[in-house]
Amino acid sequence: MSGFVEKPEPVEVPGLVHLHTGKVRDLYRDGDGRLVMVASDRMSAHDWVLSSEIPDKGRILTQLSLWWFDRLTDLVPHHVLSTELPPGAPADWEGRTLVCRSLDMLPVECVARGYLTGSGLREYEQTRTVCGLALPEGLSDGSELPSPIFTPATKADVGDHDENVSYEEVARRTGAETAAELRQITLAVYDRARGVARDRGIVLADTKFEFGRAEDGELILADEVLTPDSSRFWPADQWQPGRAQPSFDKQFIRDWLDASGWDRHGELPPPPLPEDIVEQTRARYVEAYERLTLTRWT
Q1: 3-state secondary structure 123-151
Q2: Selection from 17, 20, 22, 21 nearest residue 34 by Cα
Q3: β-sheet with 48-53: strand ranges across
Q4: How many helices (H) and strands (E) does the chain have?
Q5: By 3-state DSSP, what share of the chain in percent is helix, strand and coil, each rounded to 5?
Q6: Residue pLDDT tens, the chain, 298 long
Q7: CA geometry: angle at 8 spanning 4 and 10, to 5°?
Q8: Which of 103, 99, 75, 120 lies closest to 226, judged by CA?
Q9: Cα distances (angstroms) measured from residue 16 to each of 45, 52, 86
């Protein structure tokens, strides 16, 4: 069992049609057919949307995504049209709202991994492969891979778990040409971002992207990009293979839940986060933003 601990009611704004409430974002459509994407402070972990929110999280995700989009446009166009608030939108939407192109979204999470951890590690321990790709013997939690790999996953609904799939499955779902394009762009963006992060003392262990097609068929980078929600960021000076790594992402909350006594496979929802865990999580998101952008969060 999983899903929302407490599903929020969507905010009603004149001129906007509510489309979807996701784990973190609320989607609307405006009168011109554009998508309005609002990032909340909600936190998800282990396929649950928790009752506790992380202050400023939605703004951090939005502003960091914008920072990365600006640095990736020579590799792939993005979906953002504007950051202006729609008329009548609540003041709280400021800094967390993107007006975006409406795209035909591709049914796959495009994951790039440069290091072995998470679901990739679990698969490797059983089969010495990740998404059907053979890896060398002797790797452990946090090991750097010989070269980055494309390890796609299915896109899950709220409450369901993304499932790793093979490249061949992506080709079956999207066509061989699109699958090849997704792999090439995913690895190119990861390579660019990994270099930027490395220069700032951060290991970009893995990350996921979403893409859609514009009306003219052009492949567009969508959703969020290279945030602590969609990526694993580790402090480079503490990287040590063979153990779980300190992180600037929500792995901190996953670890707390795992140690809390809550049964993630049971029927009860996860407990509220203690105030100190909320504060420490916010501090990690802020530090990731400040380290990457070299600017202070205000």
Answers
A1: HHHHHCEECCEECCCCCCCCCEEEEEEEC
A2: 17
A3: 3-4, 48-53, 42-45
A4: 6, 16
A5: 30, 25, 45
A6: 568 988 899 999 999 999 999 999 999 999 999 999 999 999 999 889 999 999 999 999 999 999 999 999 999 999 999 999 999 999 999 999 999 999 999 999 999 999 999 999 999 999 999 998 999 999 999 999 999 999 999 876 654 567 889 999 999 999 999 999 999 999 999 999 999 999 999 999 999 999 999 999 999 999 999 999 999 999 999 999 999 999 998 888 988 999 999 999 888 999 999 999 999 999 999 999 999 999 999 8
A7: 135
A8: 75
A9: 29, 27, 8
At residue 208, what is the residue type?
A: K
State the alpha helices, DSSP H only, in the chain.
57-72, 118-127, 167-174, 176-199, 251-259, 275-293
Report the Cα–Cα distance between both ends of the chain, in Å, rounded: 38
